[in-house]
Design a protein that fits this description.
There is one protein chain. The chain is mostly helical. The protein has three domains: 150 residues, HUPs (Rossmann fold), CATH 3.40.50.620; 108 residues, Glutamyl-tRNA Synthetase, domain 2, CATH 1.10.1160.10; 87 residues, Arc Repressor Mutant, subunit A (Orthogonal Bundle). Helices cover 47% and strands 11% of the residues. The mean pLDDT is 94. It catalyses: tRNA(Glu) + L-glutamate + ATP = L-glutamyl-tRNA(Glu) + AMP + diphosphate. Belongs to the class-I aminoacyl-tRNA synthetase family. Glutamate--tRNA ligase type 1 subfamily.
Length: 466
Protein backbone atom coordinates (compact mmCIF):
# COMPACT_ATOMS: atom_id res chain seq x y z
CA UNK A 1 0.00 0.00 0.00
CA UNK A 2 1.36 3.42 -1.01
CA UNK A 3 1.94 5.65 2.05
CA UNK A 4 0.00 8.93 2.13
CA UNK A 5 1.76 11.95 0.66
CA UNK A 6 3.40 14.23 3.23
CA UNK A 7 5.06 17.47 2.13
CA UNK A 8 6.52 20.28 4.14
CA UNK A 9 7.54 23.92 3.95
CA UNK A 10 10.56 24.78 6.06
CA UNK A 11 11.39 28.52 6.08
CA UNK A 12 14.09 30.19 8.14
CA UNK A 13 12.61 32.95 10.35
CA UNK A 14 15.15 35.60 9.43
CA UNK A 15 12.83 37.90 7.46
CA UNK A 16 9.52 38.18 5.64
CA UNK A 17 8.00 35.44 3.46
CA UNK A 18 9.79 35.86 0.14
CA UNK A 19 7.83 35.42 -3.10
CA UNK A 20 10.04 32.44 -3.98
CA UNK A 21 9.35 30.83 -0.61
CA UNK A 22 5.64 31.43 -1.07
CA UNK A 23 5.71 29.58 -4.39
CA UNK A 24 7.61 26.68 -2.77
CA UNK A 25 4.98 26.52 -0.04
CA UNK A 26 2.21 26.64 -2.65
CA UNK A 27 3.69 23.77 -4.67
CA UNK A 28 3.97 21.63 -1.53
CA UNK A 29 0.43 22.55 -0.48
CA UNK A 30 -1.06 21.80 -3.88
CA UNK A 31 0.72 18.46 -4.19
CA UNK A 32 -0.39 17.29 -0.74
CA UNK A 33 -3.94 18.65 -0.85
CA UNK A 34 -4.56 17.24 -4.31
CA UNK A 35 -3.72 13.75 -3.05
CA UNK A 36 -5.46 13.81 0.30
CA UNK A 37 -2.10 14.07 2.04
CA UNK A 38 -0.59 16.30 4.71
CA UNK A 39 1.14 19.65 4.36
CA UNK A 40 3.39 20.35 7.35
CA UNK A 41 5.20 23.49 8.49
CA UNK A 42 8.62 23.55 10.09
CA UNK A 43 10.38 26.71 11.26
CA UNK A 44 14.13 26.21 10.77
CA UNK A 45 15.34 28.46 13.57
CA UNK A 46 18.75 26.92 14.30
CA UNK A 47 20.44 30.22 13.36
CA UNK A 48 19.80 31.73 16.77
CA UNK A 49 21.44 35.07 16.01
CA UNK A 50 19.27 35.88 13.00
CA UNK A 51 16.02 34.08 13.85
CA UNK A 52 13.29 36.27 15.35
CA UNK A 53 9.75 35.80 16.61
CA UNK A 54 8.69 38.73 14.44
CA UNK A 55 9.92 36.97 11.31
CA UNK A 56 8.12 33.77 12.31
CA UNK A 57 4.90 35.74 12.79
CA UNK A 58 5.37 37.42 9.38
CA UNK A 59 5.83 34.04 7.67
CA UNK A 60 2.72 32.59 9.32
CA UNK A 61 0.75 35.71 8.42
CA UNK A 62 1.88 35.49 4.80
CA UNK A 63 0.89 31.82 4.51
CA UNK A 64 -2.45 32.55 6.17
CA UNK A 65 -3.18 35.42 3.75
CA UNK A 66 -2.36 33.15 0.81
CA UNK A 67 -4.79 30.56 2.19
CA UNK A 68 -2.14 27.86 2.58
CA UNK A 69 -3.37 26.00 5.65
CA UNK A 70 -1.05 23.48 7.29
CA UNK A 71 -1.72 20.35 9.31
CA UNK A 72 -0.96 20.33 13.03
CA UNK A 73 1.18 22.82 14.90
CA UNK A 74 4.32 24.29 13.28
CA UNK A 75 7.47 22.48 14.42
CA UNK A 76 10.51 24.49 15.45
CA UNK A 77 13.82 22.94 14.57
CA UNK A 78 15.77 24.33 17.54
CA UNK A 79 13.44 22.60 20.00
CA UNK A 80 14.50 19.27 18.50
CA UNK A 81 18.27 19.70 18.93
CA UNK A 82 18.49 16.82 21.43
CA UNK A 83 16.90 14.47 18.89
CA UNK A 84 19.38 15.61 16.24
CA UNK A 85 22.29 14.93 18.59
CA UNK A 86 20.84 11.50 19.35
CA UNK A 87 21.00 10.59 15.66
CA UNK A 88 24.55 11.90 15.34
CA UNK A 89 25.69 9.66 18.19
CA UNK A 90 23.75 6.72 16.71
CA UNK A 91 25.76 7.12 13.50
CA UNK A 92 28.92 7.41 15.55
CA UNK A 93 28.09 4.15 17.38
CA UNK A 94 27.39 2.32 14.11
CA UNK A 95 30.66 3.42 12.53
CA UNK A 96 28.95 5.69 9.97
CA UNK A 97 30.43 8.80 11.59
CA UNK A 98 33.54 9.63 13.60
CA UNK A 99 34.94 12.13 16.09
CA UNK A 100 37.16 14.81 14.61
CA UNK A 101 39.46 16.85 16.85
CA UNK A 102 40.93 19.02 14.08
CA UNK A 103 41.09 22.70 15.01
CA UNK A 104 39.92 25.51 12.77
CA UNK A 105 43.56 26.54 12.33
CA UNK A 106 44.43 23.05 11.01
CA UNK A 107 41.49 23.10 8.62
CA UNK A 108 42.48 26.56 7.34
CA UNK A 109 46.06 25.40 6.84
CA UNK A 110 44.84 22.42 4.79
CA UNK A 111 42.79 24.71 2.54
CA UNK A 112 45.62 27.23 2.13
CA UNK A 113 47.97 24.45 1.09
CA UNK A 114 45.43 23.21 -1.46
CA UNK A 115 45.02 26.72 -2.84
CA UNK A 116 48.79 27.10 -3.09
CA UNK A 117 48.85 23.98 -5.26
CA UNK A 118 46.18 25.57 -7.40
CA UNK A 119 43.64 22.87 -6.64
CA UNK A 120 40.44 22.46 -4.72
CA UNK A 121 40.26 19.60 -2.28
CA UNK A 122 37.66 18.71 0.32
CA UNK A 123 39.07 18.60 3.83
CA UNK A 124 40.37 15.16 4.74
CA UNK A 125 40.41 14.80 8.49
CA UNK A 126 43.37 12.93 9.99
CA UNK A 127 40.93 11.54 12.57
CA UNK A 128 39.01 9.49 10.00
CA UNK A 129 39.66 5.88 10.94
CA UNK A 130 41.80 6.87 13.96
CA UNK A 131 42.10 4.51 16.93
CA UNK A 132 39.85 5.77 19.75
CA UNK A 133 42.73 5.17 22.15
CA UNK A 134 44.52 8.10 20.49
CA UNK A 135 41.67 10.55 21.10
CA UNK A 136 42.77 13.62 23.09
CA UNK A 137 40.77 15.13 25.92
CA UNK A 138 39.63 18.02 23.75
CA UNK A 139 36.50 19.37 22.00
CA UNK A 140 35.42 17.46 18.89
CA UNK A 141 32.85 17.49 16.14
CA UNK A 142 31.06 14.47 14.72
CA UNK A 143 31.69 14.05 11.00
CA UNK A 144 29.88 11.87 8.50
CA UNK A 145 31.98 9.06 7.05
CA UNK A 146 31.45 9.96 3.38
CA UNK A 147 32.27 7.52 0.57
CA UNK A 148 35.54 8.38 -1.17
CA UNK A 149 35.00 6.43 -4.39
CA UNK A 150 32.17 5.99 -6.85
CA UNK A 151 29.23 8.28 -7.30
CA UNK A 152 25.94 9.26 -5.67
CA UNK A 153 22.82 9.30 -7.83
CA UNK A 154 19.99 11.75 -7.13
CA UNK A 155 16.73 10.84 -8.86
CA UNK A 156 14.97 14.18 -9.07
CA UNK A 157 11.40 14.58 -10.33
CA UNK A 158 12.20 17.95 -11.89
CA UNK A 159 15.92 17.95 -12.64
CA UNK A 160 16.11 14.32 -13.74
CA UNK A 161 19.02 12.05 -12.85
CA UNK A 162 21.81 14.00 -11.16
CA UNK A 163 25.17 12.31 -10.64
CA UNK A 164 27.62 13.54 -7.99
CA UNK A 165 31.15 12.19 -7.79
CA UNK A 166 31.78 11.03 -4.23
CA UNK A 167 35.27 12.53 -4.38
CA UNK A 168 33.53 15.91 -4.24
CA UNK A 169 31.68 15.06 -1.01
CA UNK A 170 33.37 15.99 2.25
CA UNK A 171 33.00 14.33 5.62
CA UNK A 172 30.43 16.91 6.58
CA UNK A 173 30.02 17.98 10.20
CA UNK A 174 26.79 16.69 11.70
CA UNK A 175 27.27 17.83 15.29
CA UNK A 176 29.34 20.84 16.30
CA UNK A 177 31.73 20.85 19.23
CA UNK A 178 29.16 22.70 21.36
CA UNK A 179 26.66 19.87 20.80
CA UNK A 180 24.43 21.75 18.34
CA UNK A 181 23.44 20.10 15.06
CA UNK A 182 24.23 21.43 11.61
CA UNK A 183 21.50 22.19 9.10
CA UNK A 184 22.48 19.17 6.98
CA UNK A 185 21.75 16.77 9.82
CA UNK A 186 18.76 18.52 11.34
CA UNK A 187 16.79 18.77 8.09
CA UNK A 188 17.11 15.04 7.40
CA UNK A 189 16.18 13.98 10.93
CA UNK A 190 13.19 16.29 10.96
CA UNK A 191 11.98 15.19 7.53
CA UNK A 192 12.24 11.54 8.57
CA UNK A 193 10.54 12.01 11.92
CA UNK A 194 7.75 14.08 10.32
CA UNK A 195 7.15 11.32 7.78
CA UNK A 196 7.90 13.57 4.81
CA UNK A 197 7.55 11.58 1.59
CA UNK A 198 8.25 14.35 -0.94
CA UNK A 199 10.85 17.11 -0.52
CA UNK A 200 9.82 19.90 -2.89
CA UNK A 201 12.19 22.85 -2.56
CA UNK A 202 14.31 25.34 -4.50
CA UNK A 203 16.97 24.17 -6.94
CA UNK A 204 19.60 25.92 -4.82
CA UNK A 205 19.28 22.96 -2.44
CA UNK A 206 20.07 20.37 -5.12
CA UNK A 207 23.73 20.12 -4.07
CA UNK A 208 22.58 19.42 -0.51
CA UNK A 209 20.60 16.38 -1.58
CA UNK A 210 23.67 14.21 -2.18
CA UNK A 211 25.07 15.03 1.25
CA UNK A 212 21.73 14.60 2.99
CA UNK A 213 21.19 11.29 1.24
CA UNK A 214 24.25 10.00 3.11
CA UNK A 215 22.40 10.50 6.41
CA UNK A 216 19.36 8.60 5.14
CA UNK A 217 21.59 5.74 4.02
CA UNK A 218 23.60 5.71 7.27
CA UNK A 219 20.41 5.44 9.34
CA UNK A 220 18.73 2.95 7.01
CA UNK A 221 15.87 5.38 6.35
CA UNK A 222 13.83 5.58 3.15
CA UNK A 223 14.96 8.47 0.95
CA UNK A 224 12.08 10.84 0.08
CA UNK A 225 11.14 11.81 -3.45
CA UNK A 226 13.28 14.79 -4.46
CA UNK A 227 11.87 17.65 -6.52
CA UNK A 228 14.06 20.74 -6.87
CA UNK A 229 12.12 23.58 -8.49
CA UNK A 230 13.62 26.43 -10.56
CA UNK A 231 14.37 29.93 -9.38
CA UNK A 232 12.20 32.96 -10.06
CA UNK A 233 13.86 35.67 -12.14
CA UNK A 234 12.86 39.25 -12.83
CA UNK A 235 11.39 40.37 -16.14
CA UNK A 236 14.95 41.04 -17.35
CA UNK A 237 15.90 37.40 -16.83
CA UNK A 238 18.20 38.13 -13.90
CA UNK A 239 17.96 36.71 -10.38
CA UNK A 240 15.11 38.31 -8.47
CA UNK A 241 16.19 41.21 -6.27
CA UNK A 242 14.84 44.43 -4.82
CA UNK A 243 15.39 46.27 -8.09
CA UNK A 244 12.61 44.16 -9.62
CA UNK A 245 10.03 45.45 -7.14
CA UNK A 246 8.09 43.66 -4.43
CA UNK A 247 9.78 40.60 -2.96
CA UNK A 248 7.69 39.90 0.14
CA UNK A 249 4.24 38.32 -0.01
CA UNK A 250 2.93 40.98 2.38
CA UNK A 251 3.73 43.63 -0.25
CA UNK A 252 1.39 41.96 -2.73
CA UNK A 253 -1.43 42.05 -0.21
CA UNK A 254 -0.82 45.75 0.37
CA UNK A 255 -0.80 46.33 -3.42
CA UNK A 256 -4.31 44.88 -3.48
CA UNK A 257 -4.03 41.52 -5.20
CA UNK A 258 -6.58 38.89 -4.10
CA UNK A 259 -5.09 35.79 -2.49
CA UNK A 260 -6.76 33.52 -5.08
CA UNK A 261 -5.10 35.50 -7.86
CA UNK A 262 -1.70 35.18 -6.18
CA UNK A 263 -2.16 31.42 -5.82
CA UNK A 264 -3.15 31.17 -9.48
CA UNK A 265 -0.25 33.32 -10.65
CA UNK A 266 2.39 31.69 -8.45
CA UNK A 267 1.25 28.24 -9.56
CA UNK A 268 1.94 29.26 -13.16
CA UNK A 269 5.44 30.45 -12.28
CA UNK A 270 7.38 27.38 -13.34
CA UNK A 271 4.45 24.96 -13.69
CA UNK A 272 1.84 24.56 -16.37
CA UNK A 273 -1.27 22.56 -17.18
CA UNK A 274 -1.65 22.74 -20.93
CA UNK A 275 -2.57 26.28 -21.95
CA UNK A 276 -4.65 27.01 -18.85
CA UNK A 277 -3.87 30.45 -17.42
CA UNK A 278 -6.89 31.16 -15.21
CA UNK A 279 -8.04 28.48 -12.78
CA UNK A 280 -9.43 28.02 -9.31
CA UNK A 281 -7.56 26.54 -6.36
CA UNK A 282 -9.68 23.40 -6.56
CA UNK A 283 -8.65 22.96 -10.18
CA UNK A 284 -5.00 23.57 -9.28
CA UNK A 285 -5.13 20.91 -6.55
CA UNK A 286 -6.60 18.41 -9.00
CA UNK A 287 -4.16 19.24 -11.80
CA UNK A 288 -0.87 19.92 -10.03
CA UNK A 289 1.86 17.35 -10.45
CA UNK A 290 5.64 17.35 -10.34
CA UNK A 291 5.96 16.40 -14.00
CA UNK A 292 4.47 19.77 -15.00
CA UNK A 293 7.26 21.76 -13.33
CA UNK A 294 9.77 23.27 -15.76
CA UNK A 295 13.54 23.12 -15.32
CA UNK A 296 14.13 26.65 -16.57
CA UNK A 297 13.79 29.67 -14.23
CA UNK A 298 10.40 31.37 -14.23
CA UNK A 299 10.03 35.10 -14.91
CA UNK A 300 7.99 37.45 -12.76
CA UNK A 301 5.57 39.36 -15.00
CA UNK A 302 3.49 42.05 -13.31
CA UNK A 303 1.28 42.59 -16.37
CA UNK A 304 0.29 38.94 -16.33
CA UNK A 305 -0.30 39.09 -12.58
CA UNK A 306 -2.61 42.09 -13.07
CA UNK A 307 -4.48 40.27 -15.82
CA UNK A 308 -4.99 37.18 -13.65
CA UNK A 309 -5.96 39.39 -10.71
CA UNK A 310 -8.64 41.12 -12.77
CA UNK A 311 -10.11 37.78 -13.83
CA UNK A 312 -10.33 36.61 -10.21
CA UNK A 313 -11.95 39.84 -9.04
CA UNK A 314 -14.51 39.68 -11.85
CA UNK A 315 -15.35 36.05 -11.03
CA UNK A 316 -15.26 36.47 -7.24
CA UNK A 317 -18.17 35.99 -4.87
CA UNK A 318 -19.37 39.45 -3.81
CA UNK A 319 -19.41 38.81 -0.05
CA UNK A 320 -15.98 37.15 -0.19
CA UNK A 321 -14.58 40.06 -2.21
CA UNK A 322 -15.89 42.54 0.33
CA UNK A 323 -14.30 40.57 3.16
CA UNK A 324 -10.93 40.48 1.39
CA UNK A 325 -11.24 44.14 0.41
CA UNK A 326 -11.65 45.05 4.08
CA UNK A 327 -8.58 42.95 4.98
CA UNK A 328 -6.62 44.76 2.24
CA UNK A 329 -7.67 48.16 3.62
CA UNK A 330 -6.51 47.15 7.10
CA UNK A 331 -3.16 45.90 5.75
CA UNK A 332 -2.70 49.10 3.73
CA UNK A 333 -3.57 51.32 6.70
CA UNK A 334 -6.69 52.77 5.05
CA UNK A 335 -9.74 54.03 6.95
CA UNK A 336 -12.11 51.08 7.38
CA UNK A 337 -15.52 51.08 5.74
CA UNK A 338 -18.52 52.02 7.84
CA UNK A 339 -21.36 49.54 8.16
CA UNK A 340 -23.42 51.59 5.69
CA UNK A 341 -20.57 51.77 3.19
CA UNK A 342 -19.96 48.02 3.51
CA UNK A 343 -23.62 47.31 2.77
CA UNK A 344 -23.55 49.55 -0.31
CA UNK A 345 -20.23 48.06 -1.48
CA UNK A 346 -21.66 44.56 -1.42
CA UNK A 347 -24.86 45.77 -3.11
CA UNK A 348 -22.88 47.44 -5.88
CA UNK A 349 -20.11 44.87 -6.23
CA UNK A 350 -21.33 43.62 -9.61
CA UNK A 351 -20.87 47.10 -11.09
CA UNK A 352 -17.50 47.60 -9.37
CA UNK A 353 -15.63 44.37 -10.01
CA UNK A 354 -15.90 44.46 -13.79
CA UNK A 355 -12.49 45.45 -15.24
CA UNK A 356 -10.94 46.17 -11.81
CA UNK A 357 -7.41 44.73 -11.70
CA UNK A 358 -6.75 45.25 -7.99
CA UNK A 359 -8.56 46.30 -4.83
CA UNK A 360 -7.34 49.91 -5.21
CA UNK A 361 -9.04 49.87 -8.64
CA UNK A 362 -12.19 48.60 -6.96
CA UNK A 363 -12.09 51.39 -4.38
CA UNK A 364 -11.47 53.96 -7.09
CA UNK A 365 -14.58 52.83 -8.97
CA UNK A 366 -16.49 52.91 -5.67
CA UNK A 367 -15.87 56.59 -4.98
CA UNK A 368 -19.55 57.29 -5.66
CA UNK A 369 -20.34 55.02 -2.67
CA UNK A 370 -17.62 56.32 -0.37
CA UNK A 371 -18.23 60.04 -1.03
CA UNK A 372 -20.33 62.15 1.32
CA UNK A 373 -22.58 65.03 0.27
CA UNK A 374 -21.81 67.45 -1.11
CA UNK A 375 -19.81 65.15 -3.41
CA UNK A 376 -16.41 66.70 -4.24
CA UNK A 377 -15.91 67.13 -8.01
CA UNK A 378 -12.78 66.98 -10.12
CA UNK A 379 -12.03 69.49 -12.90
CA UNK A 380 -13.68 67.44 -15.66
CA UNK A 381 -16.84 67.08 -13.58
CA UNK A 382 -17.03 70.84 -13.00
CA UNK A 383 -16.77 71.43 -16.75
CA UNK A 384 -19.55 68.91 -17.40
CA UNK A 385 -21.89 70.82 -15.08
CA UNK A 386 -22.38 73.88 -17.31
CA UNK A 387 -25.53 76.05 -16.94
CA UNK A 388 -27.47 74.01 -19.53
CA UNK A 389 -26.63 70.74 -17.82
CA UNK A 390 -27.60 72.11 -14.42
CA UNK A 391 -30.95 73.18 -15.83
CA UNK A 392 -31.58 69.69 -17.19
CA UNK A 393 -30.73 68.17 -13.77
CA UNK A 394 -33.26 70.54 -12.16
CA UNK A 395 -35.89 69.25 -14.60
CA UNK A 396 -34.95 65.64 -13.83
CA UNK A 397 -35.21 65.64 -10.05
CA UNK A 398 -39.03 65.93 -9.76
CA UNK A 399 -39.46 63.15 -12.35
CA UNK A 400 -37.45 60.80 -10.11
CA UNK A 401 -39.69 61.32 -7.08
CA UNK A 402 -42.31 58.77 -8.08
CA UNK A 403 -40.78 56.51 -10.73
CA UNK A 404 -40.18 52.85 -9.85
CA UNK A 405 -36.52 52.50 -8.82
CA UNK A 406 -35.48 49.94 -11.43
CA UNK A 407 -33.31 50.30 -14.51
CA UNK A 408 -36.29 49.40 -16.71
CA UNK A 409 -38.32 52.28 -15.26
CA UNK A 410 -35.48 54.81 -15.01
CA UNK A 411 -34.16 54.33 -18.53
CA UNK A 412 -37.12 55.86 -20.45
CA UNK A 413 -37.26 58.83 -18.04
CA UNK A 414 -33.65 59.76 -18.73
CA UNK A 415 -33.68 59.07 -22.46
CA UNK A 416 -36.93 61.06 -22.96
CA UNK A 417 -35.49 64.04 -21.09
CA UNK A 418 -32.31 63.94 -23.18
CA UNK A 419 -34.37 63.71 -26.39
CA UNK A 420 -36.51 66.66 -25.31
CA UNK A 421 -33.34 68.76 -25.31
CA UNK A 422 -32.13 67.32 -28.61
CA UNK A 423 -29.41 65.28 -26.91
CA UNK A 424 -28.30 61.68 -27.08
CA UNK A 425 -28.14 59.92 -23.74
CA UNK A 426 -24.34 60.12 -23.81
CA UNK A 427 -24.54 63.94 -23.54
CA UNK A 428 -26.74 63.63 -20.46
CA UNK A 429 -24.60 60.90 -18.89
CA UNK A 430 -21.59 63.19 -18.33
CA UNK A 431 -23.34 65.70 -16.02
CA UNK A 432 -25.15 62.82 -14.30
CA UNK A 433 -21.82 61.13 -13.56
CA UNK A 434 -20.42 64.45 -12.37
CA UNK A 435 -23.35 64.90 -9.98
CA UNK A 436 -23.41 61.32 -8.66
CA UNK A 437 -19.70 60.48 -8.55
CA UNK A 438 -17.89 63.81 -8.79
CA UNK A 439 -16.11 62.60 -11.94
CA UNK A 440 -16.96 61.89 -15.56
CA UNK A 441 -15.54 58.34 -15.54
CA UNK A 442 -17.52 56.02 -13.32
CA UNK A 443 -19.70 52.92 -13.32
CA UNK A 444 -22.97 53.06 -15.25
CA UNK A 445 -25.32 55.90 -14.30
CA UNK A 446 -28.10 53.40 -13.69
CA UNK A 447 -25.87 51.18 -11.53
CA UNK A 448 -24.93 54.13 -9.36
CA UNK A 449 -28.53 55.29 -8.97
CA UNK A 450 -29.71 51.80 -8.01
CA UNK A 451 -26.91 51.33 -5.48
CA UNK A 452 -27.17 54.64 -3.62
CA UNK A 453 -30.98 54.76 -3.82
CA UNK A 454 -33.65 57.35 -4.66
CA UNK A 455 -33.12 59.85 -1.81
CA UNK A 456 -29.34 60.03 -2.16
CA UNK A 457 -29.58 60.28 -5.96
CA UNK A 458 -32.03 63.17 -5.81
CA UNK A 459 -29.99 64.91 -3.12
CA UNK A 460 -26.80 64.73 -5.21
CA UNK A 461 -28.59 65.98 -8.32
CA UNK A 462 -30.00 68.92 -6.35
CA UNK A 463 -26.53 69.72 -4.97
CA UNK A 464 -25.06 69.72 -8.49
CA UNK A 465 -27.91 71.78 -9.97
CA UNK A 466 -27.77 74.44 -7.28
Amino acid sequence: MTPPVVTRFAPSPTGYLHIGGARTALFNWLYARGRGGKFLLRIEDTDRERSTDEATAAILQGLTWLGLDWDGEPITQFARKDRHAEVAYAMLASGKAYKCFSTQEEINAFREEAEARGSYAVFQSPWRGADPSTYPDAPYVIRMLAPRDGETIIQDEVQGTVTVQNSALDDMICLRSDGTPTYMLAVVVDDHDMGVTHVVRGVEHLNNAARQQMVYDAMGWAVPVWAHIPLIHGEDGKKLSKRHGALGVHEYQVMGYPAAAMRNYLARLGWSHGDDEFFTSDQAKAWFDLAGINKAPARLDFKKLQHISGLHIAAGDNAALLHELQAFMAAAGLTPLSAAQSALMEKGMDSLKDRAKTFPDLLDKAQFILANRPVPRDEAAEKALDPVSRGILRELTPRLQTVNWTKEALEPVLTELAAAHGLGFGKLAAPLRAALAGRTVSPSVYDMMLVIGRDETIGRLQDAAA
